[in-house]
Amino acid sequence: MVKTNILKGLYVITDDVLTPSHTILAQVEESLKGGAKIVQLRDKKSSLFEIKKTALALHELCKTYNALFVLNDKVELAIELGLGGLHIGKSDHHRVKEIRENFHGVLGVSCYGDVELAKEMESLGADYVAFGSFFGSPTKPDSGIVPLSTLRIAKNRLKIPICAIGGLNSENLEEVMQYNPDMLALISDIWNAKNIQEQCRLYKM
């Protein structure tokens, strides 16, 4: 499997408030119909049992639309279920080598504004890295703001695909796209939209 050829386009991330359990599948399906290529389940509140159930349902849904499903943070669960993707943050940076040895799907790592860290993650087997926030983020208001020039530096230094995340919306899309990220990760601008499918079409790459 050539992993990098699926790491392009709109990357939607679920949210505990904006994609509640009773509507998450319908909302994600609308995003897939609108062209989302990657879906990440980011659930910080549910029980492990509930996360497992939702992850399996989303995994199957994504397969139907030929999209990649990614689980956020739950390393052991992603390994147990043999999921297509896993995304980790700073709390698991020290485990990347071990995770790479045990997880055989697509592995993504948040690198915030640190290109040197991203180089290290690449050398340890990460399939893609994410940088941000680039703008104030409604879902992560405490995130530090990273200059957009980080994307240019990263594109020059890394061989793996790059994802831009944090406060992205239709108003700053053109500015971000000047730096040619491989993926655009969106949360609030997708799930707050009256028509999710139409909103996703704005981000077709």
Task: Report on this structure.
An 8-stranded parallel beta barrel has the order 1-2-3-4-5-6-7-8, surrounded by 4 helices. Helix content is 36%, strand content 18%. Helix 1 runs parallel beside helix 2. It is globular, with a radius of gyration of 16 Å. The mean pLDDT is 94. By secondary structure, the chain is an alpha/beta fold.
Biggest sheet strand line-up? 1-2-3-4-5-6-7-8
Q: Overall mean pLDDT score? A: 94
Please tell me how large the radius of gyration is: 16 Å
Task: List SSEs in N-to-C order.
Answer: EHEHEHEHEHEHEHEHH
Compute the separation of the termini in Å. Answer: 22 Å
In CATH terms, the superfamily is Aldolase class I
The count of domains is 1
DSSP strand tally: 8
Largest sheet: 8 strands, parallel, barrel
- In terms of per-residue confidence, which ranges show pLDDT below 50 for 5 or more consecutive residues? none
- Taken as a percent bin, the fraction of beta residues is 15-25%
Q: CATH class, please?
A: Alpha Beta
SS-based structural class? Answer: alpha/beta
CATH topology: TIM Barrel
Q: Summarize the amount of helix as a percent range.
A: 25-40%
Q: What does the overall shape look like?
A: globular
CATH architecture: Alpha-Beta Barrel
Q: Tell me the number of helical segments per DSSP (H or I, 4 or more residues long).
A: 9
